[in-house]
Amino acid sequence: MSPSHSTGPHPDDAVTRPPSPSRVPLEHRELWTKAAVGANTYDFDSGRVTPTIYERTTAAALRHDALNLGQGFTDHEGPQWMLETAAAAITDPRRGPGNQYPPGPGLPVLREAVAEDQRRRWDIDLDPASEVLVTTGATEGITAAILAFAAPGTQVLTFEPHYDSYGAVTAIAGAELVGVPLRGPDFRPDVDALEAAVTERTSLILLNTPHNPTGTVFSTEELRRVVDIAQRHDLRIMCDGVYEQLVFDDAAEPHHPILSVPGADEVAVAIGSAGKSFSLTGWKVGWVMGRAELVNQVLGIKQFLSFCSGPAYQWAVAAGLQDDRGFYAENVAGLQAGRDMLHSGLEAAGLRPNRAEAGYFVVADVRGLTDVGDVEFCRMLVEEVGVAAIPVSSLTVQHRANPQDELQNLVRFAFCKRHETIEAAMDRLAERLPAALDRLA
Fold it and tell me: pLDDT (tens digit, 9 = 90+) per residue, 176-224?
């Protein structure tokens, strides 16, 4: 069919044409539809799948020549020596693992490096042969864990806003994602509300700390209470820790992985990733950690997804984990300075930003500026101000959301960008936002 006769959203459509929402329950039969609804990428008007909110936002930024503070990728490369290590592993047969299939569970050198890193930093004792599983990025580890532990017909709990794959994969598993809101301005987890959401159908809790998009670092006590809930209700926990190396020095709590909590190994697996830690998001090297029995259950799914990931990248990541050569500290310092620059600019523009404790993002409340919701605000921002951001409602269980909920009025801005990019974006806000808001009124 020619483009002029096609229906539904164009693949490049962005926040200017979001998927039409629906308050109907998730009762679709087709698996692709259920996954798309779960990830807020299903357009109910056309019956078609749209790109993710990240892809739509980046496409809109390109189309409107906007500065992209939406999608969470850095605009600079990771350590040069790691790039050279990977390149040598590809081209020099005397160095590295070669270019054929690595072992499905991951190169032994990487699994050993992950285990040693966990022992050195947090005194977590893992057997690299049975308690570390390498995955094609954290997203595959998340996918395999949810499919392993969320039985069809059960409920999966998570704090929201949340990473969009949680909703998609939970739907693929035949389960129902239930969101427990994180409330501003501090976005600390309400563990009592989490336990109140547990029912006889609950099978799994999805945690994410440090949290995307709020940057909250969950405390040891908060994690201990979640582990206690899982033990008492016979639940499993998947804890997504991809931002664990990006914690700022003014965080209210130091980061502690879920597996450092006594008893967590009985109920939890943890997800790690090289992408965020080393600013190498395209390499897609992640891992699952936990007790051998639970990791083996995740392996039962993972080995029939990608089977394995690139051996050269695994080789280079192992070298980075063995010695980051000061990259972590340098990277965190740059990110924290970018956060401060972004926070100040958003505050000066009249928004109400949070002060993220970790990660890549600041979340800002738009209600002090306008009565429109986050989707319409982001459309105006990219088209008229020239700055792209993510509407936080797209990171919620949107098809059941209350339109009046405060999560429908938050916008996510990324500070994992060059400081000159952030500065230019804040200049555009100062210069163009007031007139754009007047036109919006």
Answer: 999 999 999 999 999 999 999 999 999 999 999 999 999 999 999 999 9
Give the Cα separation of 160 and 354 in Å (integer). Answer: 16
Note whether 247 and 96 are within 8 A (CB): no
Q: Which helix (H) or strand (E) holds 286?
A: strand 286-290
- Residue in the structure block whose two tokens are 């532990």: 149
What does the alpha-carbon distance between residue 359 and residue 382 come to, in Å, rounded to a whole number? 23
Residue type, 110: L
As given in the structure block, the two tokens for residue 415 are 């500070």
Amino acid at 230: A
Let me know if 109 is exposed, middle or buried by CB neighbors in 10 A (0-12, 13-18, 19+).
Answer: buried
Cα atoms in the Cβ-side hemisphere of radius 13 Å centred on 232: 9
The residue behind tokens 């039962």 is 300
Q: Are 353 and 399 in contact (CB under 8 A)?
A: no
Which of 289, 319, 227, 219 lies closest to 264 in space, CA to CA?
Answer: 227
What one-character-per-residue DSSP string does 97-113 give? S-SSPPPTT--HHHHHH
Residues 202 and 47: their CA atoms lie apart, in Å, by 30
